[in-house]
């Protein structure tokens, strides 16, 4: 941390896209919380906030801390890509980047349709998808777990939840790939336009889908939103329904991929935790909370100050962009005993801020939990000797400020075939 002549702490070097930080952001947090819980980072033009209590106050005060800019690209995009986004991906704010009173209205309906019953109903489908994926590679003995399980499971689940036709899955998956870099990273100029094109194609697909569903209601989340509209046209516009669905194709996808991959990595690097879950599947529910606390898939989220405000003694100006280090809050020693220990039996694991708090609390938390629980139940039962292969493999992370999970995670196990080949 470098003190400058300014009256607030500044860290000229801090860059959340640097290789060191991407590899292990946790190495930085304790020092941040202790020495400079709020500092300005010129490399990203943001104020970085790292303590649990400060972050909790911020997310619970939407008047002072706006969500309106949470989805702005981190860097200025090259003109063609910027134009493509401007023309092709114009989505009215409904949840994540809406502020009250608009947020109150749209979130109420989005949440009503996201009922416990609707999520519960999806359980057999999540199980079926996960079983099918495992069946698809069980004989192989070694796979990239991200490609074969952690990526397709949440994708197929959220597409099913929304009601997209199953035959479009591959097309949709191709449109959803790699897009987080455009908003939360610094992709090179040549990658920007193709990604913006894909986002525009996805929005066009969602618009068509929602229009079609409006005349053909079924048993899915989109139809439930449209039913609310049928009863009261002013409750939600067609454009708002489209926006909610479009946002779920993103929010409901990479977040959960990364949770499952991070969680598996933590379990397999601590064999005793994996074995405990195998022996006592009742521990899985709490283990998922500990995965969310210890190695969350959304380590940072944004806000913008709507007025000058003091945070941990630091005066932050109006329109300041804040980077809230949720992952640091989850390791705050004021909240968690031995925060850097991964303990699947931790009593207050669920106190984490992985899903945030307040009015923007993650809408999909019950679905993410259901997917992770189901995944670990099946993996521990069906692949008991699953292990990292090699154990010390180099893990790479997508360079961006908000989403964290391994790009690839190679695992192996003794398959029937391998057992036959190696048996005398
Ligand atoms: C492990 C998985 C997930 C994590 C860690 C996660 C985390 C988050 C976080 C940190 C926020 C921001 C809250 C804020 O602005 O204060 C959020 C918002 C949101 N999430 Fe999730 N999420 C996950 C999975 C999902 C899933 C599966 C869905 C939907 C299917 C979803 C839908 C949403 C939506 C719609 C919002 C915006 C809510 C609002 O602003 O009212 N998320 N999530």
List the helices and strands and how they pair.
Layout: H1 19-23, H2 26-35, E1 38-41, E2 46-49, H3 52-59, E3 65-66, H4 79-88, H5 102-113, H6 116-121, H7 123-137, E4 142-144, H8 145-150, H9 152-162, H10 169-176, H11 180-184, H12 189-214, H13 221-231, H14 238-251, H15 254-269, H16 271-279, H17 284-294, E5 300-305, E6 309-311, E7 314-316, E8 321-325, H18 326-329, H19 365-382, E9 387-388, E10 410-412, H20 416-422
Helix pairs in contact: 4-12, 5-13, 7-9, 7-19, 10-12, 12-14, 15-19, 16-19, 17-19
The structure holds protoporphyrin IX containing FE (HEM).
Count up the helices.
20
What are the distinct ligands in this entry?
protoporphyrin IX containing FE
Poorly predicted regions are: 420-424
- CATH C-level category: Mainly Alpha
Residues in β-strands, percent: 5-15%
**Cα Rg:** 22 Å
The ordered string of helix (H) and strand (E) elements is: HHEEHEHHHHEHHHHHHHHHHEEEEHHEEH
The fold-level CATH name is Cytochrome p450
Strands of the widest sheet, in order across it, are: 1-2-8-5-3
CATH-derived architecture: Orthogonal Bundle
Shape: globular
Could you characterize what this model shows?
The chain is α+β, with helices and mostly antiparallel strands and 424 residues long. It has a single domain (19-422), classed as Cytochrome p450. Helix content is 50%, strand content 8%. It has 20 helices and ten strands. The chain has helices spanning 19-23, 26-35, 52-59, 79-88, 102-113, 116-121, 123-137, 145-150, 152-162, 169-176, 180-184, 189-214, 221-231, 238-251, 254-269, 271-279, 284-294, 326-329, 365-382, 416-422, and strands at 38-41, 46-49, 65-66, 142-144, 300-305, 309-311, 314-316, 321-325, 387-388, 410-412. Helix 12 packs across helix 14, helix 16 crosses helix 19 and helix 17 packs across helix 19 (365-382). The longest helix has 26 residues, at 189-214. The protein is globular and about 65 Å long. 42% of the residues are buried. The model is unreliable at 420-424 (pLDDT under 50). It binds protoporphyrin IX containing FE. Protoporphyrin IX containing FE (HEM) is lined by residues 59, 67, 95-96, 107, 158, 247-248, 251-252, 255-256, 259, 296-298, 301, 326, 354-356, 360, 362-364, 367-368.
